[in-house]
């Protein structure tokens, strides 16, 4: 069963990236996976369920990549900034752009409610908590700050993906995110 799930997710990922969710045919998708529509229905319920699984997989990969980039920084604050910038920058990756940032919200609804976004939120809140404990931030509620930072990065990525000129919008989005995030920093003597 796991092998069938993996085959269907791989075929869907390819089809959704190349054709988009609407144009991807379930018959072509299942044929590419060497399976039947019944396998799709029993594993995912429907095409929408398959999209949710593909989005979850890609979003998880995005989070892991952003986390790895942030972890390279010695400074927790700079790591958090690098992580957000990496996430926003992934809006230029065609597969991410089309599946996660354009088709995903159109079909699955508000990305902030996706289960995969919860892990990003938890990680951001943990960083905010540590920064608060170290006195690096103005006194603020950990959950509120985490939600706002995650939401800002997500919305910046959505903006980049939906723009007519993503490469021009990207640096503007990252700069605005940094300026907004710096508002949380405590003033240093």
Automatic annotation (TrEMBL):
Sequence ranges assigned to domain HTH tetR-type in this UniProt record: 2-62
Domain of life: Bacteria
DNA-binding region: 25-44
Protein keywords: DNA-binding
UniProt keyword annotation of DNA-binding present: yes
A Gene Ontology molecular function term of the record: transcription cis-regulatory region binding
Pfam families named among the record's database cross-references: TetR_C_41, TetR_N
Presence of the UniProt keyword DNA-binding in the record: yes
Name this protein carries in UniProt: TetR family transcriptional regulator
Signal peptide, first to last residue: none
Source organism per UniProt: Endobacterium cereale
